[in-house]
Amino acid sequence: MLLHMLKYDFKIMMKNKSLLFWLIAFPIILGSFFHLAFSSIFDTEFQADAIPVIIIDDEGAEQLSDIMGQVESDGETLFKTEMLSYDKAMKKISDNDAEAALDPKSLKLYMSPDGSSISQTIVKQFIDSYRINTSIITEAYQKDPSKASEVTERLMSDISLIKRGELTEGSLNIFDQYYYNLVAMVAFYGSLVGLSTACRNQANLSASAARKASSPLRKSTAAASGLLSAFFAESICVVSSISYIIFVLGENLGKELPLVYLGGIAGGMTGVSIGYFIGSVGSLPENKKSSIITAFTMTCCFLSGLMDASMKLKIEENVPILNHINPIALISDMFYCLNIYSDHKQYLINLVSVLAVSAVFCALTFIFTRRKKYASL
Amino acid sequence: MSQTIVKIDGLVKRYKELTAVDDLSLEIQEGEILGLLGPNGSGKTTTINCLLSLLSYDEGNIEVFGSKMTPDNYKAKAKIGVISQNVAVFDELNVYENIDYFCGLYIKDKKLRRQYTDEAIEFAGLNDFKKFKPKKLSGGLLRRLNIACGIAHKPSLIILDEPTVAVDPQSRNRILEGIEKLNRDGASIIYTSHYMEEVEQLCSRIIIMDKGKNIASGTKEELKKKVNITETIKAEVRNADEETLSKIKQLPHITSSEYDGKLLTVKCSGGKHNLIRLIEVLNEHELHLGRVYTELPTLNDVFLEITGKQLRDKED
Ligand SMILES: Nc1ncnc2c1ncn2[C@@H]1O[C@H](COP(=O)(O)OP(=O)(O)OP(=O)(O)O)[C@@H](O)[C@H]1O
Ligand SMILES: [Mg+2]
Asked: From atom 17 of ligand 1, which residue's Cα is the shortest distance away?
């Protein structure tokens, strides 16, 4: 019985066109779009000259200038820094004599109105990445001071990895965040898979589920088959998205591929179980529930920086709690941790918490679907 | 001795304020085709869903195959086949896969399942459409697929909820013949409909429902005996005047007469020569007669007599 159910549950999922769109086509389109957008920035218009950046003479200016000086490619530095007082810097900016000025303390970025948008984008991306990293340094320091230097060292090497050669191939570290979020989005769209599975099992949501419910099929068998096949289908989607990003687009998602895949699949399971739960409770029709899930996913993606990487930072600064409960942020952080920390401790913590969320929702669903009769169909 | 297959006792189902099924009792004997006849919203589907333990109900007792019907009564469920009012198939699967899927919920043995699936396809006349997705089927074919999915496992109790809605007469006849065949092969059947002709043609016993209540039950002959009317005479007449009409009303055995400017409808109870007497009156007044025909009482008359309203619009 279970095998019979698994076979068909899986088949039905793999033939659901709208699911396939959101889980396979959409990520491929979006990923390719990122790839084109980011690589064209560097491919076509990027001039060989270093980008002139003014660093306002304040606390930390030396260090920042040092780090920016280290960001180089083929022996050529990416940025040409100059230290000036605030007033002079502002004058140069407004006179269009420099592209951008940085305040080393607040990491605030001032940009000239007529500057080259490409150069300015690069500076902005650099400073965003730097900001994320500095908060990680502080965080790591607070957790375990002895590890902090190790993290700092790794970060430095990460930043100095920004080399021209890699730029033209489009694999710039500071853009990785977008791909992390993309994978997290695919993982979380597993909730749509979970939802459609639930609707095939809940007699008040579809006529075919009512027909199933009047057969001798046990509820637990239906739920087990639905969840297992949904996990499996979702894993295929996650694996294909990750593979597309890594092997077709040639982007970097981290050095330890098996762990990257594992993280993605775990995220997918969370998505599926949340969707299955939403599908199993309440009596809203499937299309309403599905709109809710899509809107929720897109909002979470937006907040964790899928559309604009600096979003996550703004949240970290203003409402940090959001980043700790936003499932997309949690999942994308897993990949981030893989890249940033030399040991797997943080990655494992995230992995376990993502799996725990999944287990909690599965358990909740099993409890809810014990309800056997409906008040209304 | 025939066995009682289903026994519903004092069933009450409320949706918030609305009482959809109101103290309904019924029994189905082995080998019967029981018709549940009632207008839209009379509670037929609700009764069926309670019977299947899909819906919770407020009062009453339901026994199927001699044991209390509950959601875990898998033994009883295994012997039931359901054809729901809404087509219940998967759009993603083709005709063959859909039947195989639902058959597989009952039949574990693969070989037997393949045989049953093929037989169901044959039964529903879907041989040429095995690989078709439901979306590609016409309305009638889709209904037939819906039926095939419900009967493939050879259930001994088959519940059909308005299986012929929106089906052309040819497909409808095919479906009705199929149901008769299933019954001949030994299945007991519950058939709900608001088409009285279908129910009259098919069912060995009929329950008429209105507003969730069982308002009359019996064979069609028994039901028709409940009304006074023995025949309804209809005559196409033009320009009948008041005098003629009142004369007609005074004829013996006439219980009511109606005239809409074109058609004269006269209902009679008992007596003989009602038609001849009516025509005589019309001839006396030199009225031109078009078609004249008589109808035996219908279930609609029964419904009308009990509830004071039509079972359904004639154009339906
Ligand atoms: N889920 C529900 N919530 C509230 N009221 C409902 C619900 N389902 C049915 N009803 C009401 O219960 C009554 C009986 O409905 P039911 O579907 O059982 O009628 P029916 O005889 O099957 O009608 P039809 O011939 O149209 O199928 C109707 O008045 C209907 O409006
Ligand atoms: Mg109905």
From this structure: B45
List, for residues A56-98, the tens digit of each pLDDT value.
888 777 777 777 776 654 456 677 888 888 888 888 888 877 7
The answer to whether B104 contacts chain A (CB < 8 Å) is: yes
- Residue A156 reports pLDDT greater than 90: no
The answer, for B80 touching chain A at a CB cutoff of 8 Å, is: yes
Q: Residue A350's beta-bridge partner residues?
A: none
Query: Where along chain A do its domains lie?
Result: 2-41+173-371, 49-160
Chain B positions in Cβ-Cβ contact with residue A5 (cut-off 8 Å) = 104
Residues A286-311 pLDDT 10s: 889 989 888 888 888 888 877 776 77
Kindly report the pTM of this predicted structure: 0.77
Contact assignment for B97 to A11 by CB distance below 8 Å: yes
B54/chain A closest Cα distance in angstroms: 5
User: For domain A49-160, which CATH number applies: 3.40.190, 3.40.50, 3.90.120, 3.20.20?
Assistant: 3.40.190
- The answer on B210 and B274 residing in a single domain is no
- Asked if residue B70 belongs to a domain, the reply is yes
Same domain, yes or no: B10 and B95: yes
Show the domain range for B211: 4-224
